[in-house]
Amino acid sequence: MTVLAFISVSVATPITRWPAFIAFFSLLIFTAVMSKIPLLLLFKRALIEIPFIFFAILMPFFGEGEKFSLFSLELYRDGLLAGTSIVVKGTLGVLAAVILSTTTTAREILRGLETLKLPTIMVQIASFMLRYINVISDEMERMKVARESRGFVATGIKHWKVLATAAAALFIRSYERGERVHLAMLSRGFDGVLPSLNNQSVTARQWLTALSIPFLALTASLIALMIGW
Amino acid sequence: MTSTPSLQISELAFAYPDGNQALFGVNLTIQKGERVALLGPNGAGKTTLVMHMNGIHPTMQGEVRISGELVDSKNKSSLKAIRSKVGIVFQDPDDQLFMPTVGEDVAFGPYNMGLRGEELNKVVAQALSQVGMLEFIDRPPHHLSFGQRRRVAVATVLAMKPEILILDEPSSNLDPASRRELADILRSLEITIVMVTHDLPYAHELCERSVILSGGIIVADGKTDVILKDKALLKSHRLELPVGFNL
Protein backbone atom coordinates (compact mmCIF):
# COMPACT_ATOMS: atom_id res chain seq x y z
CA MET A 1 0.00 0.00 0.00
CA THR A 2 2.73 2.35 1.05
CA VAL A 3 4.75 1.26 -1.93
CA LEU A 4 1.84 1.98 -4.22
CA ALA A 5 1.29 5.41 -2.70
CA PHE A 6 4.98 6.20 -2.93
CA ILE A 7 5.14 5.19 -6.55
CA SER A 8 2.02 7.20 -7.38
CA VAL A 9 3.47 10.30 -5.76
CA SER A 10 6.78 9.97 -7.56
CA VAL A 11 5.14 9.28 -10.89
CA ALA A 12 2.88 12.28 -10.47
CA THR A 13 5.79 14.62 -9.90
CA PRO A 14 7.11 16.17 -13.14
CA ILE A 15 10.72 15.30 -13.85
CA THR A 16 11.70 18.94 -14.09
CA ARG A 17 11.30 19.28 -10.35
CA TRP A 18 14.50 17.40 -9.76
CA PRO A 19 15.11 18.29 -6.08
CA ALA A 20 11.97 16.36 -5.18
CA PHE A 21 13.51 13.26 -6.71
CA ILE A 22 16.67 13.60 -4.68
CA ALA A 23 14.40 13.65 -1.65
CA PHE A 24 12.59 10.52 -2.90
CA PHE A 25 15.84 8.64 -3.34
CA SER A 26 17.10 9.62 0.09
CA LEU A 27 13.80 8.49 1.60
CA LEU A 28 14.12 5.07 -0.01
CA ILE A 29 17.74 4.65 1.00
CA PHE A 30 16.78 5.69 4.53
CA THR A 31 13.98 3.08 4.61
CA ALA A 32 16.34 0.44 3.29
CA VAL A 33 18.97 1.26 5.90
CA MET A 34 16.35 1.28 8.65
CA SER A 35 15.16 -2.18 7.65
CA LYS A 36 18.76 -3.43 7.59
CA ILE A 37 18.89 -4.33 3.91
CA PRO A 38 22.46 -4.23 2.59
CA LEU A 39 22.51 -1.51 -0.08
CA LEU A 40 24.53 -3.70 -2.41
CA LEU A 41 21.82 -6.35 -2.33
CA LEU A 42 19.24 -3.66 -2.94
CA PHE A 43 20.95 -2.45 -6.09
CA LYS A 44 21.75 -5.93 -7.28
CA ARG A 45 18.09 -6.82 -7.16
CA ALA A 46 17.18 -3.57 -8.84
CA LEU A 47 19.18 -4.70 -11.90
CA ILE A 48 16.02 -6.41 -13.09
CA GLU A 49 15.05 -2.98 -14.37
CA ILE A 50 17.78 -2.84 -17.02
CA PRO A 51 15.83 -4.18 -20.03
CA PHE A 52 13.19 -1.52 -19.43
CA ILE A 53 15.71 1.24 -19.12
CA PHE A 54 17.22 0.25 -22.43
CA PHE A 55 14.28 1.65 -24.37
CA ALA A 56 14.21 4.78 -22.27
CA ILE A 57 17.84 5.43 -23.15
CA LEU A 58 16.99 5.23 -26.85
CA MET A 59 14.25 7.83 -26.54
CA PRO A 60 16.42 10.97 -26.77
CA PHE A 61 17.74 9.77 -30.14
CA PHE A 62 14.38 9.36 -31.78
CA GLY A 63 11.74 12.01 -31.60
CA GLU A 64 10.83 15.38 -32.86
CA GLY A 65 10.94 18.96 -31.75
CA GLU A 66 13.74 20.98 -30.26
CA LYS A 67 17.19 19.55 -30.83
CA PHE A 68 20.43 20.22 -29.09
CA SER A 69 23.86 18.64 -29.17
CA LEU A 70 25.80 17.19 -26.29
CA PHE A 71 29.25 15.62 -26.66
CA SER A 72 28.74 15.67 -30.43
CA LEU A 73 25.49 13.70 -30.05
CA GLU A 74 22.28 15.08 -31.48
CA LEU A 75 19.57 14.81 -28.86
CA TYR A 76 15.91 15.72 -28.79
CA ARG A 77 14.90 17.70 -25.76
CA ASP A 78 11.47 16.12 -25.29
CA GLY A 79 12.86 12.65 -25.76
CA LEU A 80 15.58 13.32 -23.25
CA LEU A 81 13.12 14.54 -20.67
CA ALA A 82 10.74 11.64 -21.19
CA GLY A 83 13.65 9.18 -21.14
CA THR A 84 15.12 10.51 -17.93
CA SER A 85 11.69 10.60 -16.43
CA ILE A 86 11.15 6.92 -17.18
CA VAL A 87 14.57 5.92 -15.91
CA VAL A 88 14.31 7.89 -12.69
CA LYS A 89 10.72 7.03 -11.88
CA GLY A 90 11.22 3.42 -12.89
CA THR A 91 14.24 3.09 -10.65
CA LEU A 92 12.31 4.59 -7.76
CA GLY A 93 9.44 2.19 -8.26
CA VAL A 94 11.72 -0.82 -8.59
CA LEU A 95 13.69 0.16 -5.50
CA ALA A 96 10.50 0.55 -3.48
CA ALA A 97 9.23 -2.82 -4.69
CA VAL A 98 12.58 -4.45 -3.94
CA ILE A 99 12.50 -3.08 -0.40
CA LEU A 100 9.01 -4.50 0.06
CA SER A 101 9.92 -7.92 -1.28
CA THR A 102 13.14 -8.11 0.71
CA THR A 103 11.57 -7.20 4.02
CA THR A 104 8.28 -9.00 3.62
CA THR A 105 7.64 -12.63 2.76
CA ALA A 106 5.24 -13.33 -0.06
CA ARG A 107 2.82 -14.75 2.48
CA GLU A 108 2.80 -11.57 4.49
CA ILE A 109 2.19 -9.55 1.36
CA LEU A 110 -0.85 -11.73 0.66
CA ARG A 111 -2.01 -11.24 4.21
CA GLY A 112 -1.51 -7.52 3.82
CA LEU A 113 -3.56 -7.49 0.62
CA GLU A 114 -6.32 -9.31 2.43
CA THR A 115 -6.25 -6.79 5.28
CA LEU A 116 -6.46 -4.03 2.70
CA LYS A 117 -9.72 -5.61 1.52
CA LEU A 118 -8.52 -6.66 -1.88
CA PRO A 119 -11.26 -8.94 -3.27
CA THR A 120 -10.71 -12.40 -1.75
CA ILE A 121 -10.82 -14.07 -5.13
CA MET A 122 -7.72 -12.14 -6.19
CA VAL A 123 -5.91 -12.95 -2.97
CA GLN A 124 -6.84 -16.60 -3.46
CA ILE A 125 -5.57 -16.65 -7.02
CA ALA A 126 -2.31 -15.08 -5.90
CA SER A 127 -1.99 -17.54 -3.07
CA PHE A 128 -2.51 -20.54 -5.35
CA MET A 129 -0.01 -19.10 -7.76
CA LEU A 130 2.49 -18.78 -4.95
CA ARG A 131 1.92 -22.37 -3.93
CA TYR A 132 2.10 -23.94 -7.37
CA ILE A 133 4.71 -21.85 -9.11
CA ASN A 134 7.43 -24.16 -7.78
CA VAL A 135 5.54 -27.31 -8.69
CA ILE A 136 5.01 -26.08 -12.23
CA SER A 137 8.53 -24.77 -12.71
CA ASP A 138 9.88 -28.12 -11.46
CA GLU A 139 7.67 -29.85 -13.98
CA MET A 140 8.95 -27.54 -16.70
CA GLU A 141 12.53 -28.27 -15.66
CA ARG A 142 11.88 -32.04 -15.79
CA MET A 143 10.39 -31.71 -19.25
CA LYS A 144 13.45 -29.76 -20.33
CA VAL A 145 15.80 -32.41 -18.96
CA ALA A 146 13.75 -35.10 -20.68
CA ARG A 147 13.94 -33.22 -23.98
CA GLU A 148 17.65 -32.68 -23.69
CA SER A 149 18.40 -36.26 -22.72
CA ARG A 150 16.97 -37.23 -26.05
CA GLY A 151 19.38 -34.93 -27.78
CA PHE A 152 17.27 -31.83 -28.24
CA VAL A 153 18.91 -28.45 -27.99
CA ALA A 154 16.86 -25.37 -28.74
CA THR A 155 19.02 -23.22 -30.96
CA GLY A 156 16.74 -21.29 -33.21
CA ILE A 157 13.41 -20.58 -34.73
CA LYS A 158 13.09 -24.08 -36.20
CA HIS A 159 12.85 -25.48 -32.68
CA TRP A 160 10.01 -23.27 -31.63
CA LYS A 161 7.51 -25.89 -32.65
CA VAL A 162 8.90 -28.34 -30.12
CA LEU A 163 8.96 -25.69 -27.41
CA ALA A 164 5.39 -24.71 -28.20
CA THR A 165 4.24 -28.32 -27.89
CA ALA A 166 6.04 -28.57 -24.58
CA ALA A 167 4.37 -25.39 -23.38
CA ALA A 168 1.00 -26.76 -24.44
CA ALA A 169 1.66 -30.03 -22.59
CA LEU A 170 2.63 -28.06 -19.51
CA PHE A 171 -0.53 -26.01 -19.78
CA ILE A 172 -2.72 -29.09 -20.01
CA ARG A 173 -0.95 -30.77 -17.13
CA SER A 174 -1.40 -27.69 -14.97
CA TYR A 175 -5.03 -27.53 -15.95
CA GLU A 176 -5.54 -31.15 -14.97
CA ARG A 177 -3.71 -30.59 -11.75
CA GLY A 178 -6.09 -27.72 -11.09
CA GLU A 179 -8.98 -30.15 -11.43
CA ARG A 180 -7.37 -32.65 -9.07
CA VAL A 181 -6.69 -29.94 -6.52
CA HIS A 182 -10.32 -28.92 -6.76
CA LEU A 183 -11.40 -32.54 -6.16
CA ALA A 184 -9.11 -32.74 -3.15
CA MET A 185 -10.62 -29.51 -1.85
CA LEU A 186 -14.15 -30.79 -2.34
CA SER A 187 -13.28 -33.97 -0.48
CA ARG A 188 -12.38 -31.90 2.50
CA GLY A 189 -15.66 -30.07 2.50
CA PHE A 190 -14.75 -26.98 0.48
CA ASP A 191 -17.79 -24.82 -0.16
CA GLY A 192 -16.36 -21.74 -1.76
CA VAL A 193 -14.83 -19.98 1.22
CA LEU A 194 -11.13 -20.30 1.93
CA PRO A 195 -10.05 -19.81 5.51
CA SER A 196 -8.78 -16.31 6.03
CA LEU A 197 -5.02 -16.03 6.08
CA ASN A 198 -5.21 -13.12 8.43
CA ASN A 199 -4.73 -13.65 12.12
CA GLN A 200 -3.08 -10.49 13.26
CA SER A 201 -4.42 -6.97 13.18
CA VAL A 202 -2.49 -3.91 12.18
CA THR A 203 -2.08 -1.25 14.83
CA ALA A 204 -2.68 2.41 14.13
CA ARG A 205 0.99 3.00 14.86
CA GLN A 206 2.07 0.60 12.13
CA TRP A 207 -0.26 2.36 9.72
CA LEU A 208 1.27 5.72 10.62
CA THR A 209 4.83 4.49 10.25
CA ALA A 210 4.06 2.93 6.90
CA LEU A 211 2.16 5.90 5.53
CA SER A 212 4.76 8.39 6.70
CA ILE A 213 6.98 7.43 3.77
CA PRO A 214 4.64 8.40 0.90
CA PHE A 215 3.54 11.36 3.01
CA LEU A 216 7.11 12.64 3.30
CA ALA A 217 7.55 12.10 -0.42
CA LEU A 218 4.40 14.11 -1.12
CA THR A 219 5.64 16.89 1.13
CA ALA A 220 8.96 16.98 -0.69
CA SER A 221 7.18 17.17 -4.01
CA LEU A 222 4.92 20.00 -2.83
CA ILE A 223 7.78 21.98 -1.36
CA ALA A 224 9.64 21.70 -4.64
CA LEU A 225 6.51 22.97 -6.39
CA MET A 226 6.17 25.96 -4.05
CA ILE A 227 9.77 27.03 -4.28
CA GLY A 228 9.23 26.80 -7.98
CA TRP A 229 12.20 24.74 -9.07
CA MET B 1 -19.55 -57.36 14.63
CA THR B 2 -22.97 -55.92 15.35
CA SER B 3 -22.29 -52.20 14.88
CA THR B 4 -23.11 -50.46 11.60
CA PRO B 5 -20.44 -51.07 8.98
CA SER B 6 -18.21 -48.09 8.14
CA LEU B 7 -18.73 -48.60 4.46
CA GLN B 8 -21.49 -50.38 2.65
CA ILE B 9 -21.62 -50.42 -1.13
CA SER B 10 -24.31 -52.30 -2.95
CA GLU B 11 -24.80 -52.87 -6.67
CA LEU B 12 -22.86 -49.76 -7.57
CA ALA B 13 -22.52 -49.14 -11.28
CA PHE B 14 -21.11 -46.12 -13.04
CA ALA B 15 -20.40 -45.00 -16.59
CA TYR B 16 -18.48 -41.92 -17.61
CA PRO B 17 -20.29 -39.32 -19.73
CA ASP B 18 -18.43 -40.57 -22.80
CA GLY B 19 -20.15 -43.93 -22.36
CA ASN B 20 -17.12 -45.70 -20.96
CA GLN B 21 -18.47 -47.88 -18.16
CA ALA B 22 -16.13 -48.19 -15.19
CA LEU B 23 -18.12 -50.02 -12.53
CA PHE B 24 -20.50 -52.92 -13.12
CA GLY B 25 -22.26 -53.57 -9.82
CA VAL B 26 -19.82 -53.44 -6.93
CA ASN B 27 -20.76 -54.94 -3.57
CA LEU B 28 -18.49 -54.27 -0.63
CA THR B 29 -19.00 -54.04 3.11
CA ILE B 30 -16.27 -52.92 5.45
CA GLN B 31 -16.68 -53.11 9.22
CA LYS B 32 -15.55 -50.49 11.68
CA GLY B 33 -11.85 -50.65 12.44
CA GLU B 34 -10.95 -52.96 9.55
CA ARG B 35 -7.93 -52.30 7.33
CA VAL B 36 -8.72 -53.39 3.82
CA ALA B 37 -6.54 -53.32 0.73
CA LEU B 38 -8.38 -52.57 -2.49
CA LEU B 39 -6.23 -54.21 -5.14
CA GLY B 40 -6.57 -54.09 -8.86
CA PRO B 41 -4.68 -53.46 -12.07
CA ASN B 42 -4.50 -50.05 -13.69
CA GLY B 43 -7.83 -49.03 -15.09
CA ALA B 44 -9.81 -51.46 -12.93
CA GLY B 45 -12.03 -48.67 -11.64
CA LYS B 46 -10.36 -48.27 -8.24
CA THR B 47 -10.18 -44.50 -8.37
CA THR B 48 -13.71 -44.29 -9.74
CA LEU B 49 -14.90 -46.39 -6.82
CA VAL B 50 -13.10 -44.13 -4.36
CA MET B 51 -14.71 -41.06 -5.91
CA HIS B 52 -18.08 -42.57 -5.08
CA MET B 53 -17.26 -43.00 -1.45
CA ASN B 54 -17.61 -39.32 -0.69
CA GLY B 55 -20.03 -38.34 -3.40
CA ILE B 56 -17.67 -36.65 -5.83
CA HIS B 57 -19.06 -38.88 -8.54
CA PRO B 58 -22.84 -38.93 -8.25
CA THR B 59 -24.20 -42.42 -7.76
CA MET B 60 -25.90 -43.58 -10.96
CA GLN B 61 -27.09 -46.94 -9.85
CA GLY B 62 -26.89 -48.76 -6.53
CA GLU B 63 -25.99 -47.08 -3.29
CA VAL B 64 -23.12 -46.21 -1.01
CA ARG B 65 -23.58 -45.87 2.75
CA ILE B 66 -21.04 -44.48 5.16
CA SER B 67 -21.77 -45.75 8.69
CA GLY B 68 -25.35 -46.21 7.67
CA GLU B 69 -25.82 -42.82 6.04
CA LEU B 70 -26.64 -42.74 2.34
CA VAL B 71 -24.20 -40.83 0.12
CA ASP B 72 -26.44 -38.57 -1.92
CA SER B 73 -24.64 -36.03 -4.05
CA LYS B 74 -27.79 -33.99 -4.47
CA ASN B 75 -28.28 -33.42 -0.76
CA LYS B 76 -25.70 -30.73 0.02
CA SER B 77 -25.92 -30.81 3.80
CA SER B 78 -25.63 -34.58 4.11
CA LEU B 79 -22.79 -34.50 1.61
CA LYS B 80 -20.87 -32.19 3.88
CA ALA B 81 -21.33 -34.59 6.78
CA ILE B 82 -20.26 -37.51 4.58
CA ARG B 83 -17.12 -35.71 3.46
CA SER B 84 -16.10 -35.13 7.04
CA LYS B 85 -16.53 -38.85 7.70
CA VAL B 86 -14.61 -40.03 4.65
CA GLY B 87 -11.04 -38.84 4.42
CA ILE B 88 -9.37 -39.36 1.05
CA VAL B 89 -5.61 -39.07 0.73
CA PHE B 90 -4.84 -38.53 -2.93
CA GLN B 91 -1.90 -39.98 -4.75
CA ASP B 92 -0.02 -36.77 -5.45
CA PRO B 93 0.48 -34.77 -2.25
CA ASP B 94 0.95 -31.64 -4.37
CA ASP B 95 -2.69 -31.93 -5.37
CA GLN B 96 -3.75 -32.17 -1.79
CA LEU B 97 -1.55 -29.52 -0.21
CA PHE B 98 -2.50 -26.21 -1.70
CA MET B 99 -2.37 -23.74 1.15
CA PRO B 100 0.73 -21.62 1.75
CA THR B 101 1.81 -23.47 4.91
CA VAL B 102 1.46 -26.97 6.31
CA GLY B 103 -0.52 -25.72 9.30
CA GLU B 104 -3.04 -23.84 7.20
CA ASP B 105 -3.48 -26.80 4.94
CA VAL B 106 -4.25 -29.13 7.82
CA ALA B 107 -6.66 -26.50 9.14
CA PHE B 108 -8.52 -26.36 5.82
CA GLY B 109 -10.74 -29.40 6.40
CA PRO B 110 -11.74 -28.67 10.02
CA TYR B 111 -12.27 -25.01 9.05
CA ASN B 112 -14.78 -26.06 6.43
CA MET B 113 -16.52 -28.07 9.12
CA GLY B 114 -16.91 -24.92 11.16
CA LEU B 115 -14.07 -25.12 13.69
CA ARG B 116 -12.42 -21.83 14.64
CA GLY B 117 -9.84 -20.39 17.00
CA GLU B 118 -8.31 -22.42 19.81
CA GLU B 119 -10.24 -25.54 18.95
CA LEU B 120 -9.01 -25.42 15.37
CA ASN B 121 -5.39 -25.00 16.45
CA LYS B 122 -5.70 -27.95 18.79
CA VAL B 123 -7.06 -30.25 16.08
CA VAL B 124 -4.30 -29.17 13.70
CA ALA B 125 -1.55 -29.77 16.24
CA GLN B 126 -2.99 -33.15 17.13
CA ALA B 127 -3.26 -34.31 13.52
CA LEU B 128 0.27 -33.20 12.74
CA SER B 129 1.72 -34.92 15.78
CA GLN B 130 -0.08 -38.12 14.79
CA VAL B 131 2.07 -38.21 11.67
CA GLY B 132 5.15 -36.78 13.40
CA MET B 133 5.17 -33.54 11.43
CA LEU B 134 4.28 -31.02 14.13
CA GLU B 135 7.60 -29.19 13.89
CA PHE B 136 6.91 -28.37 10.23
CA ILE B 137 3.66 -26.54 10.93
CA ASP B 138 4.82 -23.17 9.57
CA ARG B 139 6.74 -24.49 6.56
CA PRO B 140 5.49 -24.12 3.02
CA PRO B 141 4.72 -27.57 1.55
CA HIS B 142 7.18 -27.27 -1.33
CA HIS B 143 10.07 -27.19 1.14
CA LEU B 144 9.28 -30.71 2.36
CA SER B 145 10.48 -34.02 0.98
CA PHE B 146 8.00 -36.19 -0.88
CA GLY B 147 7.61 -38.58 2.06
CA GLN B 148 6.98 -35.69 4.42
CA ARG B 149 4.41 -34.24 2.06
CA ARG B 150 2.62 -37.57 1.92
CA ARG B 151 2.51 -37.64 5.72
CA VAL B 152 1.16 -34.10 5.85
CA ALA B 153 -1.45 -35.13 3.30
CA VAL B 154 -2.51 -37.88 5.71
CA ALA B 155 -2.66 -35.32 8.53
CA THR B 156 -4.87 -32.98 6.49
CA VAL B 157 -7.41 -35.76 6.38
CA LEU B 158 -6.94 -36.99 9.95
CA ALA B 159 -7.67 -33.47 11.18
CA MET B 160 -11.24 -33.99 10.00
CA LYS B 161 -11.56 -36.97 12.36
CA PRO B 162 -12.87 -39.25 9.66
CA GLU B 163 -14.73 -42.48 10.27
CA ILE B 164 -12.91 -44.06 7.37
CA LEU B 165 -9.56 -43.21 5.82
CA ILE B 166 -9.05 -43.90 2.14
CA LEU B 167 -5.55 -43.84 0.72
CA ASP B 168 -4.90 -43.84 -3.01
CA GLU B 169 -1.57 -45.58 -3.68
CA PRO B 170 -0.06 -44.56 -0.33
CA SER B 171 3.31 -46.16 -1.02
CA SER B 172 3.88 -44.78 -4.51
CA ASN B 173 7.12 -42.84 -4.96
CA LEU B 174 8.22 -43.36 -1.37
CA ASP B 175 11.70 -44.49 -0.43
CA PRO B 176 11.89 -47.58 1.83
CA ALA B 177 12.26 -45.59 5.05
CA SER B 178 9.33 -43.25 4.27
CA ARG B 179 7.33 -46.30 3.30
CA ARG B 180 7.94 -47.95 6.66
CA GLU B 181 7.31 -44.70 8.57
CA LEU B 182 3.98 -44.32 6.82
CA ALA B 183 3.12 -47.94 7.60
CA ASP B 184 3.87 -47.34 11.29
CA ILE B 185 1.65 -44.27 11.27
CA LEU B 186 -1.22 -46.09 9.59
CA ARG B 187 -0.97 -48.99 12.03
CA SER B 188 -1.10 -46.59 14.98
CA LEU B 189 -4.43 -45.13 13.84
CA GLU B 190 -7.54 -46.72 15.20
CA ILE B 191 -9.84 -46.07 12.31
CA THR B 192 -11.18 -47.93 9.33
CA ILE B 193 -8.70 -47.82 6.48
CA VAL B 194 -9.19 -48.58 2.80
CA MET B 195 -5.92 -48.70 0.95
CA VAL B 196 -6.05 -48.57 -2.84
CA THR B 197 -2.87 -50.05 -4.19
CA HIS B 198 -1.10 -52.49 -6.42
CA ASP B 199 1.82 -52.67 -4.04
CA LEU B 200 1.04 -56.18 -2.84
CA PRO B 201 3.74 -56.51 -0.15
CA TYR B 202 2.51 -53.25 1.36
CA ALA B 203 -1.04 -54.55 1.39
CA HIS B 204 0.18 -57.72 3.06
CA GLU B 205 2.07 -55.74 5.67
CA LEU B 206 -0.84 -53.54 6.65
CA CYS B 207 -4.12 -55.16 5.80
CA GLU B 208 -5.76 -58.31 7.12
CA ARG B 209 -8.29 -58.34 4.35
CA SER B 210 -7.96 -57.70 0.64
CA VAL B 211 -10.44 -57.11 -2.11
CA ILE B 212 -9.60 -57.34 -5.79
CA LEU B 213 -11.44 -55.02 -8.14
CA SER B 214 -11.04 -55.94 -11.77
CA GLY B 215 -13.05 -54.96 -14.80
CA GLY B 216 -15.43 -52.95 -12.63
CA ILE B 217 -16.50 -55.74 -10.27
CA ILE B 218 -15.17 -57.30 -7.07
CA VAL B 219 -13.60 -60.58 -8.13
CA ALA B 220 -12.09 -61.66 -4.83
CA ASP B 221 -12.59 -60.77 -1.19
CA GLY B 222 -10.84 -62.49 1.68
CA LYS B 223 -7.80 -62.72 3.90
CA THR B 224 -4.79 -61.02 2.34
CA ASP B 225 -2.70 -64.12 3.06
CA VAL B 226 -4.97 -66.39 1.12
CA ILE B 227 -5.48 -64.03 -1.79
CA LEU B 228 -1.81 -63.27 -2.27
CA LYS B 229 -0.98 -66.99 -2.28
CA ASP B 230 -3.44 -67.66 -5.09
CA LYS B 231 -1.05 -67.11 -7.98
CA ALA B 232 -3.60 -68.02 -10.64
CA LEU B 233 -6.10 -65.51 -9.28
CA LEU B 234 -3.52 -62.74 -9.14
CA LYS B 235 -2.27 -63.49 -12.59
CA SER B 236 -5.68 -63.42 -14.18
CA HIS B 237 -6.13 -59.87 -12.90
CA ARG B 238 -2.74 -58.51 -13.90
CA LEU B 239 -1.40 -58.56 -10.37
CA GLU B 240 1.82 -60.21 -9.30
CA LEU B 241 4.10 -60.28 -6.31
CA PRO B 242 7.54 -58.80 -6.83
CA VAL B 243 10.17 -61.27 -7.97
CA GLY B 244 11.73 -63.02 -5.01
CA PHE B 245 8.96 -62.07 -2.64
CA ASN B 246 7.44 -65.02 -0.82
CA LEU B 247 4.74 -65.14 1.79
What can you tell me about this protein's structure?
The complex is a heterodimer of chains A (229) and B (247). With 229 residues, chain A is mainly alpha-helical. In chain A, 72% of the residues lie in helices and 3% in strands. Chain A is built from nine helices and two strands; from the N terminus they run ααααββααααα. Chain A has a two-stranded antiparallel ribbon with strand order 1-2. In chain A, helix 1 packs antiparallel against helix 5, helix 1 packs parallel to helix 9 and helix 6 packs antiparallel against helix 7. The radius of gyration of chain A is 23 Å and the shape is flat. Chain B is an alpha/beta fold. In chain B, 37% of the residues lie in helices and 24% in strands. Chain B is built from ten helices and ten strands. In chain B, helix 4 packs across helix 5 and helix 4 runs parallel beside helix 6. The mean pLDDT of chain B is 90. Classes of the chains: A mainly alpha (229), B alpha/beta (247). At the A-B interface, helix 7 and helix 8 of A face helix 2, strand 6, helix 3 and helix 4 of B.
Nutshell version of this structure?
The complex is a heterodimer of chains A (229) and B (247). With 229 residues, chain A is mainly alpha-helical. Chain A has helices at residues 2-12, 18-34, 39-46, 50-58, 77-103, 106-115, 120-149, 160-187, 204-227; strands at residues 67-70, 73-76.
Label this structure with key terms.
heterodimer, A: 229 residues, mainly alpha, two-stranded antiparallel sheet, 9 helices, 3% strand, flat, B: 247 residues, alpha/beta
